Model the fold of this input.
Amino acid sequence: MFALPHLDLPPLRAAAGRVRLPGSKSISNRVLLLAGLAEGVTEIRDLLDSDDTRVMLAALRALGCGLERAGPVLRVKGLGGRLPVREADLFLGNAGTAMRPLTAALAVLAATQGGAFTLRGVPRMHERPIGDLVDALRPLGCTIDELGTPGYPPLRLRGQAGGRLALAAPIRVRGDVSSQFLTALLLALPLAALDTPVVIEVQGELISKPYVEITLALLARFGITVQREGFARFTIPQGSRYRTPDIVHVEGDASSASYFVALGAIAAVDAPLVIEGVGSDSIQGDIAFVDAARAMGAQVQARPNALEVRRGRWPLQAIALDCNAIPDAAMTLAVMALYAQGTTRLSGIASWRVKETDRIAAMAAELAKLGAQVDSGADFIAVTPPARWHAATLGTYDDHRMAMCLSLAAFNPLAGALPPVPIRIEDPACVAKTFPDYFETLLALVRAAPAEVPVITVDGPSASGKGTLAAALARRLGWHFLDSGAVYRATALAAVRAGVALADEAALARVAAGLDLHFDGDRILLAGEDVSDELRREDTGALASRVAALPAVRQALHALQLSLRRAPGLVADGRDMGTAIFPQAPLKVFLTASAAERARRRHKQLISKGIEANIADLLADIEARDARDRSRSASPLRAAEDALQLDNSQQGVDESVDTVLQWWRQRNPLDEGR
Ligand code: DC
Done:
């Protein structure tokens, strides 16, 4: 949803609730490849739906695998080790978990069955090393052309049918740059192990060992039991064949869990945060992050498939930790360090430099913007919390983990930031790599002080276009939207349905106080029923205008409207948003289109819906409603003294939106000077 240039987060103060994690990226892409190579149909449940899995799926489809989706289940009809397609140009985005294993698998398949395959990605992918894997594959007899910089994608993998691989000698692969090279070989070489065992030897100290454990566990699920000597030597037994386990469940992503474990440790102040999808039964190494978080002070209860987190020690405790085994989740520790007493030193993270971005440099630069003191080197980062927090615009480097980690800096009030500061996350949509709904999920769990949540009020008379303007503003900012007219309309509708007389103010106020109203995107639900269309009817509007004139009704609806002021912000439209409901709003807009122009617009709108209408009647109706809204004693329609007037008679919606956004920029501390 947050396909915005940036998302501003106000200071946040607490978090609680329940989160269901998206599927693990590492497991999803491994399972997809294994299912694609196996014979028969594999049913995959809870597969991650993200950029990285989408490129893998597209690649498998291009290679001839059958893919069929039925709700949360994906059925993959595998190739059974036989290539029906001999040529393909595959775009793999920035997914290392697709690029490395597909390189190994297609190099082996092309070398034995013939074919030509090109593997490429986004520019950053072409800066991520793959030379160690190429060096491991070439001695087998695989033909690999490096189409750009030697040692980096794009690659072309070629071969003739009937080719044989040289498997007598062990295959040697370096393990100290990325464990994905070893994983790629382990996943692909069962293709060549029908007649001979295949031995892989790791040179140098293997990093990120837990990821190799995931690979071995999933190979076992597909019928391949790799024999091993620690992490130094692996043997794929002769006669190995991928056998589909029929059904595979993908567990929740343990790296994604780290943001919520951290969230709980920092902000689950009065109620716990429950994370569903990973727990003590997980095969993902990043689950070890939980121990690191505990060492910093988190209180975590681990169940087989869930984690329950509360704040324990506060402030958190700085730690010094070798993070070689949890490189991805370790980024989250760097941000937890903002809330710790002392300096947190994370070492063993040289691999950060060859990930989606140079994560050591990126993390150092962005944490420093917040005021933290950061020291870093080839394979470590040390973070001391800010003495004074700064409102900051935080770059995310097209790196999902940077965006997710940095969002946690919004809890600065809990670290005593004075004043509490908002933060800006640039390009929030980059989380789509592994967690497309991350920000929606986060925002549903958090609490801000209402006064610190920005509000833009848009008031004005009937048919002035406030609703359209306000909804567009909310979309552009990624904020919530309150259509307060709909609240009055819903009250009128609920009263009619309950048979309450419009003269009975006390009874109407009771209806208003008990209103079961939910805004769900474009839909408005009254007691669970979608009443959006009924609310928009002219007769409902006329009733609403009468109901809205009653002080007891307005009073009863006050709290409901205030409760919608939630992070990251609210755009509220109505008659009294700036005067009565949000008198402290930092930006108030009052629309002043003429009655004639408004009648013309309403006419056009009705005609376009196929409803007959007459301009003169509409004008009379609008003028009557204006008079009633302006003259009533309770919250009459008027501009707040500090409201900015916008006459949109001659303006299109886009122009009005741009005007208001410009006004907002002049008031937003994150835009100062722009
Ligand atoms: O904006 P609208 O047409 O949906 O509003 C319906 C009625 O509700 C309108 O006649 C005035 C009333 N109203 C109000 O009194 N205060 C608000 N904040 C919003 C609407």
Summary: The radius of gyration is 29 Å. The longest strand covers residues 114-120.
